């Protein structure tokens, strides 16, 4: 895995209230994860769909612009998506106190 | 428009670095906007697709969970999406200093 990914993982793992981190390739396959196998597979596949849609929507609105990250708030937790060159990172975080 | 939407608009319009605010119905039609007509139509349609995908992905992962908001960072600006009952709000914001 590239140094960029390792650096990101290190940065995220020091953040507070982290529930899980998954590294996903652009085929939607989890290649590294702190979640159990079932959760990793589900999150990887679903977040790949969402990352792809976000990337496409931002490009369609302005071909010179680029999607750099996304934070999704849900009832239970937050999901952070960071697209890198060959992978994207999914971070699940409990809301901060 | 409902009091909930008016309240949200008031809240967002006091935020710093706001570029534009669009209120969109779930058919992807802009019903109120501070952007010009072309931009409003584009943002409404594209953000409706993204909101729908986010809502669906979060539900598919856990049927008891719910998507409550999203912040997308791009090279040029940030996009905040807040789904309400009958509409969702799209806020374009320049990155904070």
What does this entry look like structurally?
Two copies of one chain form a homodimer. By secondary structure, the first copy, chain A, is an alpha+beta fold. Helices cover 37% and strands 34% of the residues of chain A. Chain A has two helices and five strands. Chain A has a five-stranded antiparallel beta sheet with strand order 2-1-5-4-3, sandwiched between helices. The longest helix of chain A is centred in the middle third of the chain and has 25 residues, at 37-61. The interface between A and B is medium-sized, with 26 and 26 residues. Strand 3 (67-74) of chain A pairs antiparallel with strand 3 (67-74) of chain B, so a sheet runs across the interface. Chains A, B: It is found in: Cytoplasm, Cytoskeleton. Chains A, B: One of its GO terms (biological process) is microtubule-based movement.
For the record, the CATH architecture of chain A stands as 2-Layer Sandwich
CATH class of chain A: Alpha Beta
Unreliable runs of chain A: none
Number of spatially distinct domains of chain A: 1
Count the beta strands of chain A.
5
**Name of the CATH superfamily of chain A:** Dynein light chain 2a, cytoplasmic
Largest interface: A-B, 26 and 26 residues
| Estimated share of beta-strand residues of chain A | 25-35%
Order of SSEs of chain A, N→C?
A: HEEHEEE
CATH topology of chain A: Beta-Lactamase
Structural class of chain A: alpha+beta
Oligomeric category:
homodimer
Domain Roadblock/LAMTOR2 (chains A, B): 5-93
Family (chains A, B): Belongs to the GAMAD family.
Protein name (chains A, B): Dynein light chain roadblock
GO molecular function (chains A, B): dynein intermediate chain binding
């Amino acid at each position: 895995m590239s140094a960029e990914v390792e650096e990101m993982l290190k940065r995220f793992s020091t953040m507070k209230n982290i529930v899980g981190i998954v590294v996903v390739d652009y085929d939607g396959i989890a290649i590294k994860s702190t979640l159990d196998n079932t959760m990793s597979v589900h999150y990887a596949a679903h977040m790949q769909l969402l990352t792809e849609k976000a990337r496409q929507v931002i490009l369609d609105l302005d071909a010179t612009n680029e999607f750099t990250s996304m934070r999704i708030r849900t009832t239970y937790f937050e999901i952070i998506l960071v697209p890198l060159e060959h992978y994207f990172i999914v971070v699940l975080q409990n809301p901060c106190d």
